[in-house]
Give the backbone structure.
Amino acid sequence: MIAMSHFTYRPARDELAYTFGGRLPVAHVRSGDLITVHTEDCFGGLVRGPADLPSQVCQMPYLNPVSGPFFVEDAEPGDTLAVHLLSIEPARDWGVSATFPYFGALTSTSHTATLQPPLDERVWVYGIDRHAGVVRYRATASDHMVELPLDPMIGTIGVAPAAMESRSTIVPDYYGGNLDTPELRAGTTLYLGVNVHGAILALGDGHARQGHGEVCGVGVEIATVTTLAVEVIKGTDTAWPHLETDTAIMSVGCARPLEDAYRMAHQDLTGWTVDLCGLHTLDAYQLISQAGRAPIGNVCDPNYTVLAAIDKALLPQRQAAYRDAHARLRALAAVQG
Amino acid sequence: MIAMSHFTYRPARDELAYTFGGRLPVAHVRSGDLITVHTEDCFGGLVRGPADLPSQVCQMPYLNPVSGPFFVEDAEPGDTLAVHLLSIEPARDWGVSATFPYFGALTSTSHTATLQPPLDERVWVYGIDRHAGVVRYRATASDHMVELPLDPMIGTIGVAPAAMESRSTIVPDYYGGNLDTPELRAGTTLYLGVNVHGAILALGDGHARQGHGEVCGVGVEIATVTTLAVEVIKGTDTAWPHLETDTAIMSVGCARPLEDAYRMAHQDLTGWTVDLCGLHTLDAYQLISQAGRAPIGNVCDPNYTVLAAIDKALLPQRQAAYRDAHARLRALAAVQG
Amino acid sequence: MIAMSHFTYRPARDELAYTFGGRLPVAHVRSGDLITVHTEDCFGGLVRGPADLPSQVCQMPYLNPVSGPFFVEDAEPGDTLAVHLLSIEPARDWGVSATFPYFGALTSTSHTATLQPPLDERVWVYGIDRHAGVVRYRATASDHMVELPLDPMIGTIGVAPAAMESRSTIVPDYYGGNLDTPELRAGTTLYLGVNVHGAILALGDGHARQGHGEVCGVGVEIATVTTLAVEVIKGTDTAWPHLETDTAIMSVGCARPLEDAYRMAHQDLTGWTVDLCGLHTLDAYQLISQAGRAPIGNVCDPNYTVLAAIDKALLPQRQAAYRDAHARLRALAAVQG
Amino acid sequence: MIAMSHFTYRPARDELAYTFGGRLPVAHVRSGDLITVHTEDCFGGLVRGPADLPSQVCQMPYLNPVSGPFFVEDAEPGDTLAVHLLSIEPARDWGVSATFPYFGALTSTSHTATLQPPLDERVWVYGIDRHAGVVRYRATASDHMVELPLDPMIGTIGVAPAAMESRSTIVPDYYGGNLDTPELRAGTTLYLGVNVHGAILALGDGHARQGHGEVCGVGVEIATVTTLAVEVIKGTDTAWPHLETDTAIMSVGCARPLEDAYRMAHQDLTGWTVDLCGLHTLDAYQLISQAGRAPIGNVCDPNYTVLAAIDKALLPQRQAAYRDAHARLRALAAVQG
């Protein structure tokens, strides 16, 4: 495969999308294409300092915008779309985080509803130094400052859902969406089942970094310039998002309660391992039990996200996943990058 | 108020809808109108006997069809739509229930995922005797037969969601949908917040009856002829579905885990009681703690449903809810019925 | 069976117990005995007015005292203890309820932990009129007063756990304990599996009434004079608490999340129905799905409680549960009462 | 501090304990003592090959034995016990894992109850090579073999609970117990609040390694020879288990559903950070949100376990935790080791 083309998409503000599904594509792409996409942050760039309280400067449902969607040629229901993240560059030298009323894991929320008043709403502005590879945290009510490793990720990426649904970009689910996992960094390939003609891919919500679970509900939110390579894997279905890196394969589960997300991811990874390697189901279950990792994505969004991961080196002589799409797109990236 | 008109809607098979939102209206109605709607059962009428296994005769996502949607004139975001259920008549002399692979509360499911094989899929056909007011259960693997009270309800009723979403009719949420509670029987008024211009109301999924939680995932599913009266309450918002009968008010919570649905319903009912009666929040919380009922709707759908109910007679001298819409629509029904 | 004896137990304050298990019996009883037990309220009687804030007048772990335990002769592991509630009389003409910091369903708690401050702690005093059969609610911050039906229940009743455990009386689980369900009223028979030599039965925590789920965490707490009849069912095991009334059988599930309590109760009731009636498992599942009730007990204790109930009249010609112990103890009660 | 003494405890089979609390101590130890403890595996060493099915060779409640308990002199309620793990040596050259009926995350269980039959019960025997530092996985139904890193941990360690309770060693909770986290490896200091006179410390259930969440319910179970150093921190309370390594501090949450364990751990870590560093609560919340890790311990035991961790280097100039007990015990270990 060689790159067919490399195009850049930079949406105007009123071209931003707020759903997966229910939206016409902005461009067509093909297997082997590179796409450079400018993405806004989850606040649409409107939160720039301590005085910009999100609940005041943002208006529901205009939160968590994505860029796109893109129509992927030859992608049909029953196929899988492979999306390789070549690079995720912060578009500005700052990022923001915040507490948001009744959102986050350590507060009552609209769903874990109580009679208590909300936590204070507050904004943190982070300096981002791409050359030093750091994100600068600064406390708001004391003088603590500390540098954290820059580890850019795409928080929200997905295709149109099935069943004629259109879903808010706040939601993570089987079609991707607001997965909010740091594993979606440059070098990772994401596999999503195609639900509609053309797949209808969109992305946004970059984070300069986030902790496990995004406990306050908000990462270090950034605009990005992100470059992707896409490939359609014909005739191969994917029920839940799969990730592949040079060293590991991962399944994503999105659900509440959190143990259901854990169960889904591990059941899926067990089945995927069986399919790839021919292990007996209980042997795969056992191997993952002792060698698996389970990084938590988010514990704040409408569905929580947990991943199940296993190192490829631990699996038997195996066929490559998705006919080696990860290696192929990685090579393509190397050439084009 | 007098009834402005009474019209009947009977969809052809290919006019059935499978989403809330994302669908153009089939008719316009106005406050005070009576609407008689023919609804299909959750299987689209395709499961008629033991050999009609749902997973074979039905095709995703063509499950749980609704009739409509209807555009309600003068309904705008920020208003509330009151829907009074005048009558729910079984359209046939039979109903069906079933086990469905990986669906229901006493099986692993797509979300509570395990490595176990599914339960057997099986169909139960119930005789419905409207004159006797009974539903006849017959065991499939022994000779037990017993009559249960006929208690018709609408399982799925809702308006278009907010945030440009379109949701499968399988889902219950703040806009209504697949609430699956027996409290939605004739004589009840349902209040739904309007999210989009025209509200866009639809309904279906009648049950001849169901137990608390619909534990196997399927009620006694029937086609119905259902008559509604609607009224727009201008300038009054409703966050979560409210129900009113002659004797009680109820709030609906839809969420997973089940305690979150319980919390939502009770927090909402506490706040509604405060708004209606002027009680202090903690006094309302206390009264509901000792006198509240919490009927479980479903423990099988994508969101579980719990209601919180309080008898009106226990509340202080109070303003009527929604400017007495329930009484007004009830009277209208009496005249027209 | 005739009553072997009728004795009364009234503990001194320092004889109250705070665990199931780990405690020596205060008396021996036999099958057919009637026992009249004086029980204190959950606050040990120390909360008597608005100024008696529970967190100040009570001291952990001296909450939720039970009277007993009683050694039941001939009760061995593998047997079942039937406990019929003959009468539950309020011992005083008042009861109390309260909010308690970080306890209850509409607040963050020690387990659903957030960074928010607690709700205000407040006490409600209820008048109890046994002759009128009412409980008088009075608001604390407005002038609302209303009478609620008196419906006395025992909140906490159980035997010693298995596995050499000793559990706080705050906890409900398979051995009974803080079940907090209104179904434990006079006329009900409770069946508990025996885990240790002598069963070691204790009870307390009467409520003049409570709503479904005990949403604020506290019922209308009362001291009681409660009369029981006990019988050992030899050679019959009981995994989770069973209840029987003249018209229904019920299984109790205790767990978090709440759906697990629901699942446990319904799986248990399905199995119990199969055992009693010889129905196929899926036929029992189906019948309960359409005719079952699922009253919520508590959504505040360390385990939540949900019951699954089915009317006896709906089941096929059946052997009586537990060799007809309910009828036998009911008759005994009639004679002795 | 210098080591006061170093003694070794090796229990005979009938000296093994199966509860925390409710058990007399086997020895007295003092702050600064080193203790070398022989621990059995979770099956009491009875599962040694594929034919030794745990449900057949083991008998409830004689599972998950611990060695001890030890009375720690001068430990009183309100103090904290610091336990530093110097070394955890596998006692044999093999370990075992298994599926166990209705136990584990990818099966229905006694609590997530369904009507499905259990998964097959099966045993895996692992070779352990201490010199090579590997654990050898071998599939049972194909010829796959792979070496995993040896990473010995103590699965179960705790003190007697409060409130006169005695708890099965299967349970993890605030007093420790069956925490099942790989973070309890050599080099880690565990802090536990003291609930009773003498603390009453016990431990067992070594794993040669385990994956995140111990998904099948069983790690690579081993007998160990484990060396500890203990110190009583007077006058400092600890609500939930704390861990400290050379580089990080961690809080442990134990609860169901899994998000509650996550919430507890993160609320605790936020508060601990505030106490240690003087950060504003929301600033600590924010820093943990972006830099925290949340390793899942178990998703199979009666309570699930999640940890919240933050690197010490990211915190402001700070007082050492627990008066620098970790460094002191680490130094002691270096001298004695």
Summary: Helices of chain B lie at 54-57, 258-277, 281-291, 325-336.
